[in-house]
Amino acid sequence: MSDVKWIKLSTHMFDDEKIRVIEQMPEADTILIIWVKLLSQAGKTNASGYIYLAENIPYTEEMLAAVFNRPVNVVRMALKTFESFGMISIDQENYIEICNWEKHQNVEGLDKIREQTRKRVAKHRKKQRIETNKDSNDTGNDDVTLRNATDKELELDKELDKEKDKENNVVAVIVSFWDNNGFGFNNIQAKESLLKWLDDSNFKEPGDMIIKALEIASASNIRNLRYVEGILKNWENSNILTVEEIESNGKKPKKEAEKKDKYEDMYDDMDF
C-alpha cells in the first residue's frame, strides 16, 4: 500500500446528474459523505480504485459502517445506490472498486512512481554492466577488454530483454485465463496476488503451475483466489514442482481433493 496523502475531487462534482439524483434521496447528505469517504479510502489503499482492509480481506458493510462512523443500514443503501448508478462495482468476493478511478486519482503521481521504478531498473542494469566490465578488466588487454565488455553488455541486454518478454507473455496468459473463465474480471487485487507466485514460489516453471491450478479450479467450478492458492500451496508442501510431477502423482493429491469437497460444501450453502 503506497502512502497517498490526497485525491482529486472535481469542482463540478455536484453538477453530475447522478449526484443530483442522490441529493433528492432520503439520507442524501450522509450518502454523499459516504461517497467521498469511499474515494478517500480508495486513495489510501492505492490499488487502482479497489478498497479493502488488507490483502484477501474485503470490507463488509458492517466494517465500513464502523470505519465511516455511519449507520450500517445507510451504508448498505449507499453501496446499492452507487452500484446501481455505475459509480462502484462489487465483485463476487465483495471487493469494492471505484469505477473510472482515473477521474479521482492522482495519475501524475502514479506516473512519477512508475518513472522512479524505471530508474531503479536502469540503475540495476548499470550495476550489472559495471560488474561485467570489472571481470573483463582482469584480462590485462585494454582493447580486448573494451571489446569483450561491449559484447557482454549486448548479451546482457539481450538476455534481460528475453526474460522480460517471456515474463510478459506468461503474465498475459495467466490474466487472460483468469478473465475469460469467470474468476472475476474486475478483481485486480486477486490477480496481482496470484501473479506474485511467479517470483515467490519454488516451482521450476511457476507460470505453468499457476495455469494448471487455474484449470483445476475452473473444472471444479470453484473460481476464487483462495482455492487456487490452496492448490499451489499443497503442491509446494508436497514438493511437487512441475506439471509433469502433478500428472505422475495422479489426477490430484488427496489433500487437494479433500479441500475441493470442503469448498464445494461451503459454496452449496451460499447464495450468490
Automatic annotation (TrEMBL):
<dbReference type="InterPro" id="IPR006343">
    <property type="entry name" value="DnaB/C_C"/>
</dbReference>
<protein>
    <submittedName>
        <fullName>Phage replisome organizer, putative, N-terminal region</fullName>
    </submittedName>
</protein>
<dbReference type="Pfam" id="PF07261">
    <property type="entry name" value="DnaB_2"/>
</dbReference>
<dbReference type="InterPro" id="IPR010056">
    <property type="entry name" value="Phage_rep_org__N"/>
</dbReference>
<feature type="region of interest" description="Disordered">
    <location>
        <begin position="121"/>
        <end position="147"/>
    </location>
</feature>
<dbReference type="InterPro" id="IPR053162">
    <property type="entry name" value="DnaD"/>
</dbReference>
<feature type="region of interest" description="Disordered">
    <location>
        <begin position="248"/>
        <end position="272"/>
    </location>
</feature>
<comment type="similarity">
    <text>Belongs to the DnaB/DnaD family.</text>
</comment>
<feature type="domain" description="Phage replisome organiser N-terminal">
    <location>
        <begin position="6"/>
        <end position="126"/>
    </location>
</feature>
<feature type="domain" description="DnaB/C C-terminal">
    <location>
        <begin position="183"/>
        <end position="247"/>
    </location>
</feature>
<dbReference type="Pfam" id="PF09681">
    <property type="entry name" value="Phage_rep_org_N"/>
</dbReference>
<feature type="compositionally biased region" description="Basic and acidic residues">
    <location>
        <begin position="255"/>
        <end position="265"/>
    </location>
</feature>
<dbReference type="InterPro" id="IPR034829">
    <property type="entry name" value="DnaD-like_sf"/>
</dbReference>
